């Protein structure tokens, strides 16, 4: 069974879907405006099979405006169409993992090497409450300051490691496409400083 560990940091599994890292980047351009936003244009090569493909694109700006996203095949626009587009932004964290694992089994190892296994009944910033059995008994409390690591069986559905765009794409025939992704993002601005040089004769 695959397991997910917290050792102060969270180690995460790779996605089984086609991701942005598997696409060859051909071109990327950035147009920055003075209202604290920018237009991103990213062109990549993408291998698509015949039929429905799921493509996950996680290499995006953190302040993306998801309503501005546009995906298009430059190779065959008529033969490659978007069936569904989603923006996943529920990022994984220690507290979100604990929230997802309420009433589910976890393993806790303390700094003095004690191992606690049980069903998570509740938690807060100071302690974890574990039940030995699913019907809530017996209970034991673990001080979070004394926790060295927490083991979860897997990453819960719905949590991701970074903001991700997901497309369901229908492709008429298997081939390589040059695709373009464009979107607006906040958090970018620009400023220019000028230096004038005047000769003694002027």
Automatic annotation (TrEMBL):
Q: Which InterPro entries match?
A: LSM_dom_sf
Recorded hits in PANTHER family, A to Z, give: DUF4139 DOMAIN-CONTAINING PROTEIN (PTHR38075:SF1)
The protein's name is: DUF4139 domain-containing protein
Q: Which organism is it from?
A: bacterium (Candidatus Ratteibacteria) CG23_combo_of_CG06-09_8_20_14_all_48_7
